[in-house]
Amino acid sequence: MADKEIPLIQAKKTTEKDVLLDPNGFFVIEVDRKTIRVEYYSNVYKNKRIVSGILQKVFTGTSADALSDTIASHVPPLRPEHYLYLGRELQKAQLAFEHQKKYIQGGC
After folding, report:
1. pLDDT band at 14; cut points 50, 70, 90
2. What's the rounded Cα separation, in Å, for the pair 69 and 54?
3. Is the model's pLDDT at 2 over the cut of 70?
4. Cβ pair 52, 44 in contact under 8 A
5. Contact at 8 Å (CB) between 75 and 25?
6. What is d(CA 74, CA 61) in angstroms, rounded to the nearest whole number?
7. For residue 1, is pLDDT > 90?
8. What is the mean pLDDT of residues 38-61?
9. How far is it, in rounded angstroms, from Cα 84 to Cα 90?
10. In the predicted model, what is the mean pLDDT of residues 44-71?
11. Burial of 61 (0-12, 13-18, 19+ CB in 10 A)
12. SS3 for 27-87, per residue?
C-alpha cells in the first residue's frame, strides 16, 4: 500500500459575517436553578431575510447530551454547523447549571 500524504488543516473560527443562518429555525437557551430550557423557533422571513421566529417547541433538561439527542429527534434537519453550535452552547449551559453560574448564549 502506497503512503499518501494526509492534509493537516489548521482550525479557524468562521467570522460572523460568513455564518449562514439555518433556514429551518433557531434556538434560544436559558438556564435557571431547576433546568436548562431550550426554545426552538421556526424562521419568519420578510424580503427573503429572517426577521423573527415562531415558537414551535420547548425542551427542558439538565444535561447537554440528553437535550442534544432529544432536540435532534424532534426538530427538522439542521445545517451541520448548527448542530455543532448547539452542542457547544448546550455544554456551556450544562456547566453553568451545574455550578449555578449565569449563562449567556453566545452568537454564531
Report:
1. confident
2. 22
3. no
4. yes
5. yes
6. 14
7. no
8. 96
9. 10
10. 96
11. buried
12. EEEEECCCCEEEEEEEEEEECCEEEEEEEEEEEEECCHHHHHHHHHHHCCCCCHHHHHHHH
pTM: 0.87
Tell me, what's the pLDDT at 107?
81
For the chain, give every domain's residue range.
21-98
Q: How many CB atoms lie within 10 A of CB 81?
A: 14
Return the amino acid letter for 29.
I
Phi-psi region of 69 (alpha: psi -120 to 50; beta: other; left: phi over 0): alpha
Taken as a whole, the chain contains a residue count of 108
* The pLDDT of residue 67: 98
Q: Which cell is 42 given?
A: 421556526
